[in-house]
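Dear Dr. H.,

I hope your travels went smoothly. While you were away I took the liberty of generating a structure for the chain from your last submission, since the lab meeting agenda had it listed for discussion. I wanted you to have the full record in hand beforehand rather than looking at slides cold. The sequence, exactly as received, is reproduced here:
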Amino acid sequence: MAQAQRGGSPGARRGRSLLARMEERTALFLLIPSFVILILIAFYPFGSVIWSSFTNARFASGEPTRYVGLDNYRRLLSVTIRELPVQRDASGAVVTKDGVKQYESWVRVLPRQPYRYRAVFEFGLLGKRFVVGAVSSAFVRAIWDTVVFTVIAVLFETILGLVIALTLSSNFPGRGGMRAAMLVPWAVITAVSARIWEWMLQPTRAGLFNTVLSYLGIGDGSINFFGQADLQLPSMIVMDVWKTTPFMALLLLAGLSVIPGELYEAAEVDGASRIRRFFTITLPLLSPTLAVALIFRTLDSLRVFDIFQIVLANQRFSMASYAQYLLIGQRELGMSSAASVVIFVLIFVFAVLYIRTLGVEKE
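The corresponding predicted structure, in token form, is as follows:
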């Protein structure tokens, strides 16, 4: 009896141990082809990219490749912040225009050696004016734009996706048709949806939005959504929210479907309102699904390429489209590889923060 309680006889335990070791060896043997394929299609190319990021390699060029160390990363990530001095006339008085102080050009402020810095953007703080400069100002701007695009787009997609999922989880006539219609924006190919939005946002009354806004008395029908710098990023965000919200809604709808209905019935009997049931039942039980959906969408948004490349081309970059521009437009394979490594590191950091903050491992 005591042996049975401890797990059987020593011979039986040795037999199970031998069987377990044989199963482990068999599993490892069967995984060898997968490991080989993974090394060939993932690890080796990624290792090549990392190595190229430390060289001055050029794409489609016969020039000899030379090791340059961290020079590519310095050129991509070197950033400085300088105060802009106030303009003064010959008498030393501050130059103003319509009562506003005028400041010196950033060209005189930002250093030119050992690299030439260009302005990324300016900002005011405590009555002073500052300029942020970078050697690769386009890449630093691309990092900023991509992070802003990711945060705002994922926020709206999550909120709208949750609203749609909660609506479609209830019983009403035509629910099946609504669920199918919800997936249409997500099913449309990104290149096609980008062209659709490009047409709707045309800077003339041929565009849907300019036509509607002109009828409402907003604008003169010639708002250039893709030509004005302050409207480019919001336009990209709207396009992405329209296309990807159904994906978030689909994931959240799947999470809602596994929540037991008895919990809602019990809460309703206890007199809990809809809002209270949402915060005490729906949101806590939906949090694992919500965490996974947020990780998927955030990492996907950080490597956004298609809509920026199709609509804005070289007017404005995401991180991925700028890496492509360095490779194809400038033929700088080393710089493009360094940009790709920076993107990988940024995505890896976001993934780790999400997993630790949202408790995905515990779930």
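Two observations you may find useful: The mean pLDDT is 83. Residues 79-134 form one domain.

With kind regards,
E. W.
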